[in-house]
Design a protein that fits this description.
The chain is an alpha/beta fold. It has 16 helices and 14 strands. It has helices at 19-29, 55-61, 102-110, 116-124, 141-147, 168-180, 189-198, 202-205, 246-255, 271-278, 294-300, 312-315, 322-329, 343-346, 354-367, 381-394; strands spanning 3-8, 33-38, 65-70, 79-86, 129-133, 152-156, 183-186, 208-210, 235-239, 260-264, 283-286, 303-307, 334-337, 349-351. The strands form two sheets. An eight-stranded mixed β-sheet has the order 3-4-2-1-5-6-7-8, sandwiched between helices. A six-stranded parallel β-sheet has the order 11-10-9-12-13-14, sandwiched between helices. It is globular, with a radius of gyration of 21 Å. It starts with a strand and ends in a 5-residue tail after the last helix. The mean pLDDT is 95.
Length: 399
């Protein structure tokens, strides 16, 4: 394999690092030309000020930007690179789908002032393998199969798009790629079960394997300078990209004013929530941190919390995710709200009422260091990325 293109919702330079960054780093380090295709980036994003949607990011990535990647191998003195690109389109907000037909929404999603064929010929030519994340970029699979008939198509749905909150047109786009991809790499059994319940003939029509996400265990066993916000006493920390149950945190902060609740998330809450947080002396909101900073935050907090929105896990059963791996590796007490009951088997505390969450936090503060039964050794990113590359290389295409 000489060239691989990852189609992902992420930018390369981001506060939302995911598994695709690790896979891309691994392919680049192996000497494979690696493209990071960030999508969607709609034209209306030019008028926004979000991390992924703003004029500077879109104007930079539509031309493409090269990022140097230093190999972690002591035997490799070469500097490798990743090319981050995007293809701005006429995509409309999901709310427009209430008025417009799915066909028109998908047309606008994939069309631009530029020709997609010319875009591919300029930036994606000679790609041997396309790896799709669970994002609207899956809409391109049919076009890419025609333009690159020799290329393998791999689908890696870290967040399956089958749940109630996903628009029906997007669910159909995902069903299409599940049937047409040469290989689907599922993250966990929860994702498999979700597909088996919702995708007709999933087991017979979809070629799939399980490959979990990973963790850099060593990063969470080191000592780091304490971030300023964590120099406070009794710090209860959430670092993640999913929305949190803010009313719960306001109640918890009021109940225990001696605790400091800290939410680190690149997705801004409403202006009303931000104002209330600013007025709450022991509740702090941080609009994301760099992925390289995460270990310092996790290892220096008192308790790791994961306070998802009420009943979140019923719509999106994500399983035991990387944020839990991080806390376990750092031996931090974990208190979750409205997440998978399987956390209990690993030794973490998961709650489903405000009262139980607040009590569990109180107990966790007293705990100190915590050991878990969950086996992290087979979750090391080095092993995961090696397996990923072997699976991609050995998967025959469906020509």
């Amino acid at each position: 394999m000489h060239k691989i293109t990852f189609i992902t919702t992420h930018n390369w330079d981001t506060k939302r690092q995911g598994g695709f960054h690790k896979f891309a780093e691994a392919t680049a380090a192996a000497g494979i030309e690696t493209v990071f295709f960030s999508f969607p980036r709609p034209y209306y994003g030019l008028f926004m000020k979000r991390e992924q949607l703003n004029s500077q990011i879109i104007n930079t990535l539509k031309k493409g930007k090269i990022y140097k990647i230093n190999s972690e191998s002591k035997d490799d003195d070469e500097n490798h690179s990743i090319f981050n690109i995007t293809f701005p389109t006429f995509r409309l907000p999901d709310s427009a789908g209430k008025l417009l037909p799915a066909g028109l929404m998908n047309f606008l999603l994939t069309h631009s002032f530029r020709s997609f064929k010319r875009f591919c010929n300029k930036f994606l030519t000679c790609t041997d393998c396309f790896v799709f994340e669970s994002c609207e970029g899956v809409a391109f699979i049919d076009k890419l199969k025609k333009l690159f008939p020799q290329a393998k198509m791999i689908y890696r749905p870290s967040d399956p798009m089958v749940y109630a909150s996903i628009p029906e047109r997007v669910k159909k786009l995902e069903q299409n790629i599940l049937y047409k991809a040469d290989l689907t790499l599922l993250v966990n059994n929860e994702g498999l079960e979700a597909y088996q319940k919702t995708i007709p003939e999933f087991d017979s029509k979809v070629n799939y394997k399980l490959l979990s996400n990973g963790i850099d265990i060593d990063s969470y066993t080191k000592q780091y300078p304490v971030p300023e916000l964590l120099q406070k006493q009794n710090t209860i920390l959430y670092v993640g990209a999913w929305e949190v149950e803010w009313p719960l945190l306001f109640q918890a902060a009021q109940t225990n004013p001696e605790y400091n609740y800290i939410v680190v998330c690149p997705n801004y809450p409403s202006a009303e929530i931000q104002k209330q947080a600013e007025q709450t002396a022991n509740l702090f909101y941080v609009p994301g941190i760099k992925p390289t900073e995460v270990p310092a935050w996790i290892t220096n907090c008192t308790v790791v919390m994961v306070p998802y929105v009420t009943d979140f896990y019923k719509d999106r059963p994500l399983g035991i995710t990387a944020k839990y791996y991080q806390a376990m590796a750092a031996h931090k007490p974990i208190v979750a709200y409205c997440d998978t009951p399987k956390l209990k088997d690993a030794g973490a505390v998961v709650t489903y009422t405000y009262e139980d969450f607040i009590k569990a936090i109180q107990e966790a503060v007293k705990t100190g260091s915590k050991n878990y039964t969950f086996n992290l050794e087979n979750r090391r990113w080095d092993n995961i990325t090696k397996t990923f590359m072997e699976l991609v290389e050995n998967t025959p295409d469906k020509r």
